[in-house]
Prior knowledge:
It is globular and about 65 Å long. It has helices at residues 2-32, 39-55, 60-83, 91-113, 140-162, 164-174, 176-181, 186-208, 220-233, 238-258, 264-278, 287-291; strands spanning 130-131, 134-135. The chain has a single domain, classed as ABC transporter involved in vitamin B12 uptake, BtuC (Orthogonal Bundle). The chain has 12 helices and 2 strands. Helix content is 73%, strand content 1%. It is a multi-pass membrane protein.
Amino acid sequence: MGRFVDLTLAGLTSGAVYAAVALALVLIWRSTRIVNFAQGGMLMITTFIAYTIISHGGSYWLALVVAVASGLVLGAVVERVLVRPVEKRSPLDAVVVTFGLLVLLQGAAGMLFGGTPRSYPPAFGIGGFQAGGRQLLFAPNDLWIVLVVLAVMAALALVFRKTSLGLRMRATAFAPEVARLLGVRVGRMLTLGWALAAAVGALAGVLIAPSTFVSPTAFDAVLVFGFTAAVIGGLDSPPGAVVGGLALGIVLSYVAGYLGSDIVTLASLVVLIAVLMVRPQGLFGTAKGRQV
C-alpha cells in the first residue's frame, strides 16, 4: 500500500509538470489554432535566462519573474517575425516553422550555454512530508508545483470564458475575417496569444527545472508528454490539459513502478490511442472546436 501511495504522489508531481506544458500548448491552440512544437525550445531558453539570474546571485523569485517576462517578449517576437508571414498559408507551414524554430533555439542554446547539464534550485524544500510515521514522496516543492498549475488553469479558464479579451481571442482563432468585421484587432490578438502562451511555458520551465537538469535538449521528453496530455484532455480546454497531465503522470508512474521505466513512452502512446479511439476530440474538448 505504501508503494502505491508513493507512486500516486510521484505521478501527481510529474503530471503537474506535464499539465503546465500542456496549458501552454492549449493556450496557443485556443488563440491561434496552431500547435507550437517549438514550445519546448522556448521554455528552455527562458529557463536558461532564469538560471543565469540565479547563478549571478539573484533570488529564485526574481529569476521566475524575469523568465515569465522573457517569455512574453519571446512569444510576441516569434509571432510577429516568424508566424505572421505564414499565417495565411497552409497550417502545415506554421508547423514546419515551429519545428525549425525548435532546432534553431536548441542550437543557439548549445552555443551560448554549452551542452553541460546544469542543476536548478527548487523554490521550497525537497524533503517529503511526514505522514503516519513514514516519509512520503511528496515534498513542499511538489505541492508548490501542483498549486501553481491549478491556479494557472483556473486563470486561463476564467479569461477565455468570462472576459471580453478571451472572447476576442477565441473569435480571432475560429473566424478571423468575421472578427475583423466586428472590430477585433486580429493581429494584436494573435500576438497576445503567443506572448501569453510563451509566458505560461516559461513558468512551466522554471517549475520543471529543479526535477531535471537544464540543458538544450533536457525538455524534449517533457514536451512530448505535455503534448500527449493536451491531446488527451482536449486542445480546447485548460481544465482538460490539467486533468490530462495529472492522469497521464499517474498512469506513467504506475507503469514505471510496476512494469519498468523502459516502457513508459510506449505506455503514453497506448493511453493516447485509447482516449482518441473513444473521444477523438479529447476528454474535455468539443467536436466543433476540433473541426475548425
